[in-house]
Structures
1.
Amino acid sequence: MQDDSSDPDTTDDHAAVWIDGHDQEEYNGLYRRDSAHLGSPVYKQDRSDAGESKYCYRCEKLGANRNDWFINDSHEPDSNKCRAFIASKGPLPTGRNTWQFYDGNAWVACSLKVTKHVRPHRSFPEVPLGDFLSLRRRQTK
């Protein structure tokens, strides 16, 4: 499935991404930029209600010249293990794309949507970039 975002991907400049569409709810939600590894951002979903975190990061040490983005229970950039992945030699693919998800028995296709988030003003909640732009267009009419 192709990226359905209409603007160039500048995900690396954003403080957070929203991931949605995973069959296991704990992998959906807001991932904030936590750190960087080999020049790419590491996004962390803090699930303090569940006492655990999830991570979205680029993994380059897989051999066979692969560059993938992983979603995983921990940040392990030197490991080939993950819960979901998408092949991408560039920034984290945004929009709706087909990821591969390990369901415990086999790898299955999973349609996930990754949305860039803007850094909020302290008096406003975080809003997906597309929603912010549509609100802005309505205000200027």
2.
Amino acid sequence: MSRTRVGSAAASSTQSGNAIRLTVILWLGIAVVAAGCAGRTPSADSRPSAERRSGPNAIHGYVLVTDPDAAWTVDAACTPTGPLKDLAEGTVVVVTDGSGAAIGDASLPAGVGEEDDATDHAGSDTHVCEFPFVVPGLITTETYAVRIGDHPAKTVQLGDLKALFWQLFFTFPGPPQ
């Protein structure tokens, strides 16, 4: 009977030793990860990521490219050419506040042919290519500037943006200067 007790005490001692080793290894792993993360700061040109966005607002934008020489089809993929070929899938949209600090970003999706007159329907010809986008998680600020790629930013005040139900339209080419 004494053998059983000794065996039980030895097994219990072995389990305690394993638990202590596991705890030490776990703490060492946490220390290594923490040391690896210490001192890291985002680069100066980094754009806000979805993980860092914390605001309640979202801008819903529509980039409309009109080309009278284009032969696009309503509800089908389209890609501008010529001087507006930079307006394409993946073009970066950046939103800044009044101080010029980036507060949100998105990328344009693939373009889709959009109706250019009341008689258009799916499959008909069009001269308008649309790129709808959303920039979520924006903080509330008095001024928003939205830049599509390298094109000049459109600046809008908070009150005006609210009156537009947080929707903005960008037409290219713009009106004659």
3.
Amino acid sequence: MPIEPTTPASISPAKGDKADSSDTVNACRKAAEQGNADAQFRLGAMLWFGNGVAQDKTQALFWYRKAAEQGNAAAQSNLSIAYLKGQDVAQDYTQAEFWCRKAAEQGFAQAQNNLAQMYREGQGVAQDYAQAAYFGAS
């Protein structure tokens, strides 16, 4: 199973999808700027996929980090994937494992599966089948 970023249910991953109105985007941006972690994640996803806004992965990562630092598991997971794959950031396995583990420890299923896969394949971490089984069974 490939490791891919999470999108909120209301965000379609189709590039250029204009499903979100400018009012929705503006409201989301305002809430994100006021520190709402869910809005920060949602805005990050909009920017990452170019939904309702021009695609801007650098800004997406900025908002993912803001949300991740507040404990948003989906943002932590997406940030870890960016670091793991070197998507619009320098590839950094330490950061990838750090953020993925944070999300996995919150019970975020996608991060648990991703961390299990990282351990199974030795992708950014030392290969460890016991850890792979632990996170894969979570």
4.
Amino acid sequence: MLADQDAHAEGVFVDFMGRKASNHPGPAVFALRTGAPILFGSAIRQPDGRHLFDLQLLRVDDLKEVTPENILKVTQAYTSLLERRCGSIPTLVLDASALENAAARGNENRFVKNLRYPSN
């Protein structure tokens, strides 16, 4: 289940790179209901074209109830993992025009989906 997609107004708003971002609550609700951990994964392209896969375990078994507060806590936790991952890759950039266009539409709090690698 992907957790890094823009959920628009229906999402849980959490901090991401200094802005509020809408993220789907589904992974948090699923983890809280079942006690299953969240496995955060990312693939990082290497200079030789291969990919390095990084997996991190996010445990939620200390949270016993599905409450709005716990959903927010878990959603923020995995969004923070994504933020740290994005910040640790110097070649990964945010498409600033997407952020500016969202702001112009009045959607400045929406998650910026346009992450890309520079062409050079």
